[in-house]
Amino acid sequence: MNPKVVTIGLGYIGLPTSALIASYGTNVLGVDTNQSVVDIINQGKIHIVEPDLYEIVSKAVSKGFFKASTKPTTADVYLIVVPTPFMGNYEPDISFVEAATNGIIPLLKKGDLYIIESTSPIGTTEKMQELIFASRPELEGDIHIAYCPERVLPGNVMHELVENDRVIGGVDEAATQKAISFYSKYVKGKLHGTNARTAEMCKLVENSSRDVQIAFANELSLICDKAGVNVWELIKLANKHPRVNILNPGCGVGGHCIAVDPYFIISDFPTESQMIGKAREINNYKSLWCAEKIISEKKDFAHKYKRQPVTAILGLAFKPNIDDLRESPAMFIADYIEKKSNIGINLFAEPNLDSHSKYKLIDYKEAISKADIIVFLVAHDKFKNINSLKNKLVLDFCGINKINE
Ligand code: SAJ
After folding, report:
1. Do the beta carbons of residue 396 and residue 380 sit within 8 Å?
2. What residue owns the CA closest to ligand 1's atom 34?
3. What spacing in Å lies between the alpha carbon of 256 and ligand 1's midpoint?
4. Tell me: the pLDDT tens digits for 224-251?
């Protein structure tokens, strides 16, 4: 197969993106360093959980439009969709983007389009441009380099990949236009052209904005706890104002995006990013506060009833109705109380997972029936309308019974 598009990275975004492009009859070669991922995909199967993805991958593979490999080959368009984690000091690590770029530099030819989709610190696209032209100076002015962040919500990827608007920033106007023309074949949402730095920052700002808004809700929950006010009722009533829209407090902010991307701004602009930094602190602190609250309620119970409580921890995922544990605040809380408190027994339930390497998971109904203290950490739909909570001490950190609907 002669691929027209090579995608580097076959994870949560790279795989759905490759399959979508291939579903239009474009030859796509997906590249991943993980041989077992490559093998799974070449059998028409998938290695991640995402609705509707299996059907589109298996069809594209069986029709011969989509293939996976550990090595890239020559194409016309290269998409870089690799992870950009942060290091121990919260500094972004762009080494995967660099490695992916180095891998395709020898393959580049006049007229090619190179696009980074990975969430990246401001200036990354220009850095990769320098890297490319440092070893292939003869291509300067002849290849098109752009940044186009993905914006999809896990669990709804196949729909959002097509329908969401995209921000596309080239290192020059020709690159922006070439990238817009590429995406216009696969995306129904509007394609907004800008420069590479603005597009990079746009992605970081979108997730930082959500983090700041959630921090506001979490701060309110701490104030309300002291003030003896029901935060859910308060937010419901405040949101009746036509220009107020407060988000939901929870047990912290998790996932691989909102809890991560703000650090890409903070690490480069520490003096200026006061509010973004404070929001991260508040959202991290909220998890610690929840953990300490559980421990103190356990102690009070033991003191009051002269026996050790059984505590049920309900929900471990990073947000409702998924099985993803990445950066999960509920996991942080579970680990913290297991480590810091030796009062009573902790039971763990996560209905979206069959098992967990560290915690023995039990059915949530069984956990509730056995426990004295019920801790709701994640507002899974399954936890709503449970009517066997009488005579239990309920700690609801995610608004399971909120008056907010
Ligand atoms: N959360 C709250 N209160 C709320 C909303 C969310 O505490 O009112 C918590 C969730 O429980 C979770 C965290 O925030 O722990 C993040 O969840 P999320 O649903 O807000 O976001 P993600 O991480 O699944 O996806 C986000 C999306 N970004 C925005 O909505 C601005 C998605 O569009 C991005 O593509 C994705 O990050 C990404 O890849 O960057």
Report:
1. no
2. 151
3. 9
4. 999 999 999 999 999 999 999 999 999 9
